[in-house]
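Researcher: Let's walk through a ligand-bound prediction step by step. First, I give you the protein sequence. Second, the SMILES string for pyridoxal-5'-phosphate. Third, you return the three-dimensional complex as structure tokens. Ready?
Model: Ready.
Researcher: Here are steps one and two:
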Amino acid sequence: MSFDIKKIREDFPILKRKVNGAPLVYLDNAATSQKPQQVIDCIVDYYSNYNANIHRGVHTLSQEATDAYEKARKTLQQHFNAAQVHEVLFTSGTTEGINLVASGFSEILKPEDEIIVSALEHHSNIVPWQMLCEKTGAKLKVIPMCEDGSLQMDVYDTLLNDKTKLVFVNHISNALGIINPIETIIEKAHQVGAAVLIDGAQACSHIKADVQALDVDFYVTSAHKMCGPTGVGMLYMKEDWGKKLPPYQGGGEMIATVTFEKTTYAEMPHKFEAGTPNICGGIAFGAAVDYLNEIGFDAIKKQEAALLDYATAQLLQIEGLKIYGTASEKTSVISFNVGEIHPYDIGTILDKLGIAVRTGHHCAQPIMDFYCIPGTVRASFAFYNSIEEVDALVHAVKKATMMLS
Ligand SMILES: Cc1ncc(COP(=O)(O)O)c(C=O)c1O
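Model: Step three, the predicted complex:
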């Protein structure tokens, strides 16, 4: 399908609104994406026509809801190329997926074990592992970063050894947009017998991840970054781990039998999905993935690369503007500061001009500490952004800089 930006923008009703009297320019896509009408319609259809609890009803509505929910799981299986549909677990998002795996490893890790994280992580791929280390006595090691935002892969080699049990790295950094060499990271971790979790929260709206080709053990993401709703996500878990890891939470749905003497657990995915899930969210997640595939990931990549190249060139013409994260493998995120101006002040003026960007540490304080800055202004572009919106951003940053200098 040819890429018709005007037509694509019409799919997103929110892009028609004004903010502070100006047309909305939404450049906070790394925080959450906007939702196309197709996904909104799917949510309305569910609550209007077949809202019911799933898996345990004989009545028609329950069967319809169950079928739609399980069809969405199948959509995710196909999209991420999981070998088995039961390797796809619904979660409330990336954060829960990571906590689920960390909770499972609390039963596995011993005090002499080591786990490896990268310096580029979101707090949700740091804190659960620190909590795990506190519980088990295992040691947390960090792959350091370079000035351009890439990882020091030679140091990674020296951190790996036969004590390494788990490596967890994001596919794409949320603060800088850098794409990590996850294929190499996974291969090297497997050579020492360590499992790998990839945090795909920032990747899945830009890249179609193939979990079998990656040979990854765990891959997590959130629907809301992919044109889907908040409160739902996916944890891909290789079948072997589904057998080894204990359940995350106890409750309905995750059991085979319950007596007061003993409970036996269901097989995956239900073993890890206690309680009534976000049914509508799961179904709408499937609709969002269908929508993205209809646009096509090649087209998405091309449009976002054009936006990134153009915005980078234009922003760099502003005196004193510095971009953080300049490695060549990067996606459509630009993190920057202008001179000594506080990012929050720039963000506030941009908002007055209708432009939504994020300011602050982006839940990645170690990256900000590395650069010795309190935070950045982050403009993150999606395929539905236009070149005219980049112009509006550049114009507004110039204006804010003049006002604040
Ligand atoms: C790289 C990365 N990991 C994890 C998360 C957490 O995602 P969620 O809040 O949807 O659980 C985010 C959210 O911004 C992220 O960017």
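Researcher: And what stands out?
Model: The mean pLDDT is 97. The radius of gyration is 22 Å.
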